[in-house]
């Protein structure tokens, strides 16, 4: 791999946002195309971060600083990527369900999914079922992904499943769920499509759905 | 051995007659008296009444007076979103802002006083609980741990601050430790025996970050609790396995873990450092979604698989879900208090196919008079069973020959067969004419008589 790309990937993994952004600019100036920087430095770096997170080698703070590098570097690359006309892998509508204000888990899922090249529309926290459906329609999404931290709010996921199934998205959109109290049994019970245990697994599953 | 003494002795690493039990009934306490979560966390009378019911039904050795990690944060300007069936959530973070700017450290003059926010309500209930049950039950006061409080104030930026702003992060955590100490002090003044420093977020950071930022503030808080003559506990949630060693370095008397941590591993680490371990009944799969038999079986298996039972407190993994079935917690209490008889009961229940052919079910449609049947675990040791049987007996005494009454204790094999045949799922319970009327929640005498009078018509 190009030395510059390796450096960007290492800076991202170490969470050095300022230096990472500078290195991305330098790579662009050197004439490396934006898509290559994205795929071979940033996304591959996030992939390592995701794997280490899953393996319990690094934790929430390390993932968040890596994600920040990713976002700042994307500020440099986005205009160029648009010019190059690159195709996103797929679109995910993401949010924490109604009544639940917890967003760390959801944010990690967002980062990991972006790391896989997916376009993520983050609706934030306390999102009512119908909003998921509206956003999925507007953005022609492939996936609706819901997060819940509380045993008291996990029941809201049933509402999202029902709302999607009652809409004309039923055969088009897959529903993913996750969060501390969620289990695969619960996923089956409410008729959701995929349960993921953490952000990394969620990103992997979403990627598989979109490329299938 | 008295309940409180049993818990204290365990915390002092002395031998005890059985493992102590501490039900973390926070908002769940309200469920026992039909009060919503936002009512019990804001109304002293409702909270007190609910906690007394926890004490009555679950026979705890130790009991938290309130489980609310938003108490201090609310005083410091975080807005709350109240819920009916869970503790409130933090809606706004007053120190939130640009992650490229360091957090502004609040002035020490903002540290809550006993008059701030909901402290007067909570401290009042603590004093009342101390007076009512403090002689026999060890009472827990819960304070928000410095890291979780810092995250309430600063939002998610606290995580990136740990990389960008070392000094300010340390200062913010020190400020939060001072808040925790103040809060602990007020609770000790109000009679709390054990102060639990509750910090669920600790499971989300590396041991290196713990050593860098957390050792100092946590050690200070635990030192202070010790100086004030109270016991301490370090509550975490989530998989904090890697941090158990470094948590022990902050010198709490005990630590409490949830089902994400292997209890055996936690006990090994705890014993090495002289720290008692509490835990870790699974909250959702067992306590919330399991049935009573699952709960009793879980506890008996847990105790049977533990070679060395010293330095252990039985507790739920964390704050019990609001709607945890009451009979499930009663089952847990029964299993820890009367382990041997419950072990036998489970063996009979799940063992060889129970022959129910000998059970004669009354012809409920053609009874001469109403039949009240009381199903209990064992009224000698199960408090809820005692109360339910007592109220049934009182109703029977009042109504005399107008009704018939039968009592079935599940300690006897033929009664297990009856319970199976009648598909009784929750104990204790009262059936009238073969219909379930009261389950786990003890009716008042007038409620029961009303139900019997209706049956007589």
CATH architecture of the largest domain in chain A: 3-Layer(aba) Sandwich
CATH C-level class of the largest domain in chain A is: Alpha Beta
How much strand of chain A? 5-15%
**What structural category characterises the helix and strand content of chain B?**
alpha/beta
The CATH class assignment of the largest domain in chain B is Alpha Beta
Helix content of chain B: 40-55%
Which regions of chain A have little confidence, pLDDT < 50, spanning 5+ residues? none
- Average pLDDT for all residues of chain A: 91
SS summary, helix count of chain A: 9
| Form type of chain B | elongated
Assign the CATH topology of the largest domain in chain A: Rossmann fold
Largest interchain contact: A-B, 25 and 26 residues
Query: What's the mean pLDDT score of chain B?
Result: 93
* Structure summary, number of beta strands of chain A: 5
Separation, N- and C-terminal Cα atoms of chain A = 28 Å
Overall domain count of chain A: 2
- Helix-and-strand structural type of chain A: alpha/beta
**Low-confidence segments of chain B, ≥5 residues, pLDDT <50?**
none
Observed structural traits:
heterodimer, A: 212 residues, alpha/beta, Methyltransferase, Methionine Synthase (B12-binding Domains), Chain A, domain 1, Rossmann fold, 5-stranded parallel sheet, 9 helices, 5 strands, 58% helix, globular, B: 457 residues, TIM Barrel, Glutaredoxin, 2 domains, 7-stranded parallel sheet, 4-stranded mixed sheet, 19 helices, 13 strands
Write the layout of secondary structure elements.
The complex is a heterodimer of chains A (212) and B (457).
Chain A: H1 3-14, H2 17-29, H3 34-54, H4 60-84, E1 91-96, H5 104-115, E2 119-122, H6 129-138, E3 143-147, H7 156-166, E4 174-178, H8 184-190, E5 194-195, H9 199-211
Parallel strand pairs in A: 1-2, 1-3, 3-4, 4-5
Chain B: H1 3-11, H2 28-32, H3 37-40, H4 44-58, E1 62-64, H5 71-75, E2 80-81, E3 89-90, H6 119-133, E4 138-144, H7 146-154, H8 157-164, H9 166-189, E5 194-198, H10 207-227, E6 231-235, H11 244-248, E7 254-256, H12 263-273, E8 276-281, H13 283-288, H14 292-304, E9 312-316, H15 326-337, H16 339-350, E10 371-376, H17 383-399, E11 404-409, H18 413-421, E12 429-432, E13 435-439, H19 445-456
Parallel strand pairs in B: 1-4, 4-5, 5-6, 6-7, 7-8, 8-9, 10-11
Antiparallel strand pairs in B: 2-3, 10-12, 12-13
């Amino acid at each position: 791999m190009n030395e510059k790309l390796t450096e960007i990937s290492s800076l991202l993994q170490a969470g050095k946002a300022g230096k990472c952004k500078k290195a991305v600019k330098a790579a662009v100036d050197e004439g490396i195309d934006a898509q290559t920087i994205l795929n071979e430095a940033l996304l591959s770096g996030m992939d390592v971060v995701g794997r280490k997170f899953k393996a319990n080698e690094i934790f929430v703070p390390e993932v968040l600083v890596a994600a920040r590098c990713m976002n700042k570097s994307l500020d440099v690359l986005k205009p160029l990527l648009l010019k190059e006309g690159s195709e996103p892998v797929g679109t995910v509508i993401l949010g924490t369900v109604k009544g639940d204000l917890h967003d760390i888990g959801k944010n990690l899922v967002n980062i990991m999914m972006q790391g896989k090249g997916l376009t993520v529309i983050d609706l934030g926290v306390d999102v009512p079922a119908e909003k998921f459906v509206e956003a999925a329609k507007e953005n022609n999404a492939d996936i609706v992904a819901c997060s819940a931290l509380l045993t008291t709010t996990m029941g809201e996921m049933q509402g999202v499943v029902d709302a999607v199934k009652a809409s004309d998205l039923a055969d088009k959109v897959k529903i993913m769920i996750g969060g501390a109290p969620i289990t695969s049994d619960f996923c089956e019970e409410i008729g959701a499509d995929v349960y993921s245990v953490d952000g990394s697994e969620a990103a992997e599953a979403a990627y598989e759905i979109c490329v299938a | 051995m008295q309940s409180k003494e049993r818990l204290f002795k365990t915390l002092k690493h002395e031998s005890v007659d059985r493992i102590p039990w501490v039900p973390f009934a926070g908002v769940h306490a309200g469920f026992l008296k039909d009060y919503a979560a936002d009512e019990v966390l804001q109304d002293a009378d409702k909270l007190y009444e609910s906690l007394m019911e926890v004490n009555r039904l679950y026979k705890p050795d130790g009991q938290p007076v309130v489980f609310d990690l938003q108490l201090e944060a609310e005083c410091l300007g975080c807005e709350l979103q109240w819920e009916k069936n869970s503790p409130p959530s933090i809606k706004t973070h007053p120190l939130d802002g640009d992650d490229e700017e360091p957090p502004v450290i609040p002035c020490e003059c903002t540290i809550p006083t006993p008059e701030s926010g909901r402290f007067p309500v909570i401290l009042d209930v603590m004093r009342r609980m101390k007076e009512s049950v403090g002689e026999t039950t060890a009472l827990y006061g819960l304070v928000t741990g410095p890291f979780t409080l810092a995250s309430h104030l600063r939002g998610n930026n606290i995580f990136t601050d740990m990389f960008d702003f070392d000094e300010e992060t340390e200062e913010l955590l020190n400020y939060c430790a001072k808040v925790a100490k103040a809060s602990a002090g007020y609770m000790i003044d109000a009679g709390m025996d054990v102060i639990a420093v509750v910090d669920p977020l600790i499971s989300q950071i590396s041991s290196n970050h713990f050593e860098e930022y957390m050792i100092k503030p946590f050690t200070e808080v635990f030192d202070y609790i010790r100086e004030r003559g109270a016991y301490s506990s370090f509550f975490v949630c989530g998989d904090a396995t890697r941090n158990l060693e470094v948590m022990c370095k902050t010198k709490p008397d005990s630590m409490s873990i949830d089902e994400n941590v292997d209890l055996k591993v936690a006990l090994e680490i705890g014993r090495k450092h002289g720290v008692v371990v509490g835990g870790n009944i699974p909250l959702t799969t067992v306590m919330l979604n399991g049935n009573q038999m699952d709960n009793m079986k879980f506890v008996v298996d847990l105790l049977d698989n533990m070679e060395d039972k010293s330095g252990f407190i039985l507790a739920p993994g964390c704050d019990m879900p609001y709607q945890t079935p009451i009979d499930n917690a009663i089952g847990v209490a029964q299993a820890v208090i009367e382990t041997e008889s419950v072990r036998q009961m489970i063996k009979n229940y799940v063992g060889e196919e129970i022959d129910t052919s000998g059970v004669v079910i009354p012809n409920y449609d053609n009874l001469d008079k109403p039949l009240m049947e009381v199903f209990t675990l064992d009224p000698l040791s199960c408090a809820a069973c005692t109360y339910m049987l007592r109220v049934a007996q009182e109703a029977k005494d009042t109504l005399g020959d107008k009704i018939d009454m039968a009592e079935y204790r599940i300690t006897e094999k033929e009664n297990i067969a009856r319970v199976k045949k009648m598909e009784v799922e929750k104990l204790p319970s009262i059936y009238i004419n073969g219909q379930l009327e009261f389950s786990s929640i003890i009716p008042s005498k007038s409620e029961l008589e009303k139900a019997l009078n209706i049956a007589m018509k």
